[in-house]
Amino acid sequence: KMATDKYDSVNMDPDMDLLSDEELEREAEGFKEQGNAFYIKKDYAEAFNYYTKAIDMCPKNASYYGNRAATLMMLCRYREALEDSQQAVRLDNTFMKGHLREGKCHLSLGNAMLDPDNSQAQQELKNAESILEYERMAEIGFEKRDFRMVVFCMDRALEPASACHRFKILKAECLALLGRYPEAQSVASDILRMDSTNADALYVRGLCLYYEDCIDKAVQFFVQALRMAPDHDKARLACRNAKALKAKKEEGNKAFKEGNFEAAYDLYSEALTIDPNNIKTNAKLYCNRATVGSKLKKLEQAIEDCTKAIKLDETYIKAYLRRAQCYMDTEQYEEAVRDYEKVYQTEKTKEHKHLLKNAQLELKKSKRKDYYKVLGVEKNATEDEIKKAYRKRALLHHPDRHSGASPEVQKEEEKKFKEVGEAFSVLSDPKKKSRYDSGQDLEDDGMNMGGQYPGNPWSGRFQG
């Protein structure tokens, strides 16, 4: 009883303490053999348990730590495996497997640290050198904003260093900057499942949301990252940009709704300078500014802004529609048809079909003589306005008025006079005008009146 009390006072198992060193070693070897059996079966969790029991029996046996390190590596628990490998080497510096496993753990964790004098670690040394080279190339690529190069380098570096969070984070950040958000989110989420407090992963997760124009959710992740790492400069900058971008965009929207188009134009322009990397939000800002530009009759500028929006986001239907309308307003019908065709191929709605047909009709009409232009009137001109315009143009181009001009000028004026007659014969006849406006062909209607219109008050005015 006294002996039991003694052992209980130090929380030890009295039966274990009564075993001899030889018996302890024998029992530890039994646990090791069981661990080996489970390891061969690839049941690494059970192998880990039995190697741990062997270590508890004989905590100064280097091979037990080496075996448990190998098991931990199979479980991708490289930091713990590194600790076991280092303990094995501390207990027995000649334990070569311990040195090799330590090197592999360093490589897997992205630490290119190996002993160059160790002949059995030459392959690991080559891997370490390649990792350092890929790191160097990635650093140069990031500075040049060649994010594809960085992703390539990190993929190569992660082949030997599969557990290195630093490499994974850099790859994820560049995937986000390339607009490959699902891939970037997947990498960041994998890290957060293992370490929910990883500030870098939280930052990348927020960056993806930010670039997908989910600014409120993005700010939450940036704030969380800063809570984990108050000196995280990238998270702080991204958080500041996100808040500024949201505020400026909302100011622009407010000004637009209030009809203050000049202010809205300026506010959207300011918002576009905040973060050139935010492709999706900037595409919306360009389209918004194009809408304002069309209100201000800056149609060419509006077309340019829509083109910039589409360059950032080729799937942005609203930008195609806005640009197509601007093309229609500037009578660039072929370009309008092209944009409406793109929209209709993507979204086959009745509205888009109607817009496309209307653009095709205007294109067809634009290839004929524009009788409204010939008379110098708007398309919604009244009957009286058409008559007045006709009389004015008929006087201006009547052949008798140019009888003293050169043959070339006479010929040109005669041609214009005939066109004036054609235009009036069509636009003054309600049926012909209706057919003309609807885009129908009028070649068989005898439009060419030779400059004369039945009942034309100007016929013969200049004769005699």
Automatic annotation (TrEMBL):
SMART domains: DnaJ, TPR. Its main location: cytoplasm. The keyword DNA-binding does not apply. InterPro entries: DnaJ_domain (IPR001623), DnaJ_domain_CS (IPR018253), J_dom_sf (IPR036869), TPR-like_helical_dom_sf (IPR011990), TPR_rpt (IPR019734). Residues 370-440 form the J domain. Residues 397-421, 429-438 have a biased composition (Basic and acidic residues). Pfam families: DnaJ, TPR_1, TPR_16, TPR_8. CDD domains: DnaJ. Residues 396-464 are annotated as: Disordered. The keyword S-adenosyl-L-methionine does not apply. One of its GO terms (cellular component) is nucleus. It comes from the Eukaryota. It is found in: Cytoplasm, Cytoskeleton; Nucleus. Keywords: Acetylation, Chaperone, Cytoplasm, Cytoskeleton, Nucleus, Phosphoprotein, Repeat, TPR repeat. TPR repeats lie at residues 28-61, 199-232, 245-278, 317-350. Acts as a co-chaperone regulating the molecular chaperones HSP70 and HSP90 in folding of steroid receptors, such as the glucocorticoid receptor and the progesterone receptor. Proposed to act as a recycling chaperone by facilitating the return of chaperone substrates to early stages of chaperoning if further folding is required. In vitro, induces ATP-independent dissociation of HSP90 but not of HSP70 from the chaperone-substrate complexes. Recruits NR1I3 to the cytoplasm. PANTHER family: DNAJ HOMOLOG SUBFAMILY C MEMBER 7, DNAJ PROTEIN P58IPK HOMOLOG. This is DnaJ homolog subfamily C member 7. It comes from Mastacembelus armatus.
